[in-house]
Task: structure prediction
Amino acid sequence: KISIITAVYNRASTLSFSIDSVQAQCYCNTEHVLVDGASSDGSIELIQQRKRPTDRPAQQRRGWVWHTGV
Result:
């Protein structure tokens, strides 16, 4: 399995490009981990809108970690 880790902090304006890029990969055995450092610009809301039923959020002390099975 290949893990793709994306650190996010107030990047709602470019986050969709990252999510789209990972989801467009042809290799099936991947996971996308989005680590948010307590963004205040709507990044967390964007992640929530784009997550799929298999995605599992885990709250961290200073933000969120979203483990997304791509």
